[in-house]
Specification:
295 residues; alpha/beta; TIM Barrel; 2 domains; seven-stranded mixed sheet; 11 helices; 14% strand
Length: 295
């Protein structure tokens, strides 16, 4: 049996609510034995998480979540690739992530500009503070800027938007008016960057981003040709049917099958609890992610 694992979580180094050490502490309190801190396009919290893991008795695997573009789909779309057991101090990885973060920052600022064009006022103090501190910015920070401006109160009420998640769903996801697609990296480039850092690459939460089961399976086949090592089959929002489809395809293809509750913080409406995902009777395959030396 694998250890009690939760292989995606986020801290204030990207779009989470807690520090990296606090994330590890919460995971320990929940009974997590194997944890990955997977901040978006950055590994700046990994060392802190590793040290906290030693203090709280949680094995932390060095990891990252890279936002990428699936440029081979019928219409380009953004997907996330998780990298596990990486050498988070590798210079090559640092160079890749710096490039990816720069594109993430520009995409986020384009979204902020689009919201202003749509008549929203933005309190950008947190965005400025993060940029000055060299921290990533993303959709939650732009959404927070809208929610923090008192000038938007009546419009937010009229549109029934009352938190960051509802603002993102209304304006900042694909097909919504303020969404802007990032330009780099492609899925293949993200996989290569993870492999260059000695890690394994896993497609995160397929059914969060793609609705059609046939399209998900076809995407797995395409990503396998690029060297993907696994799929996040077990996820907090995956249904039993979605989970079974993914777990069985991973077993057929010899791919890893991982899982997470995607912890973002205690106040998040969906991603607030560790271990809040179900394997529905399927056996995970964590491969060397679960090995103590990651080798």
């Amino acid at each position: 049996m694998p250890p009690r694992f939760d292989l995606q979580s986020h801290s204030t180094h990207s779009d989470g609510q807690l520090s990296a050490a606090e994330v590890v502490e919460r995971a320990a309190e929940a009974g997590v034995e194997l944890l990955a801190l997977t901040d978006h396009d950055t590994v700046t919290g990994v060392s802190e998480a590793l040290q906290a893991g030693d203090r709280f008795g949680v094995r932390v695997v060095p990891a990252v979540e890279i936002s990428s573009i699936d440029d081979e789909a019928q219409g380009p779309r953004e997907l996330h690739i998780l990298g596990y057991a990486i050498d988070h101090a590798a210079p090559a990885l640092g160079k890749h992530l710096a490039e990816f973060l720069a594109d993430r920052e520009q995409r986020t600022l384009r979204m902020a500009a689009a919201l202003r064009e749509l008549g929203w006022r933005l309190d950008e103090s947190e965005i400025r503070e993060r940029l000055e501190a060299g921290k990533p910015i993303g959709r939650p920070h732009v959404a927070g800027a809208v929610l923090s401006s008192p000038d938007n109160a009546s419009r937010l009420k009229a549109e029934q938007i009352d938190d960051i998640g509802s603002l993102i769903r209304a304006y900042l996801i694909e097909g919504r008016p303020a969404f802007r697609l990032r330009e780099t990296p492609t899925v293949a480039e993200a996989i290569d960057a993870i492999h260059d850092a000695g890690g394994v690459a896993v497609w995160a939460h397929p059914f969060w981003d793609v609705d059609d089961p046939d399209e998900v399976l076809a995407s797995i086949d395409r990503f396998r040709a690029h060297g993907i090592d696994g799929v996040e089959a077990f996820y907090v929002t995956h249904t039993p049917e979605e989970t079974t489809l993914l777990a069985e395809r991973c077993a057929e293809l010899g791919l890893l099958s991982t899982g997470s509750a995607d912890f973002h913080g205690p106040d998040n409406r969906i991603f607030s609890s560790f271990l809040a995902f179900d394997t529905y009777g399927h056996e995970p395959n964590l491969g060397r992610i679960a090995e103590r030396d990651g080798a």
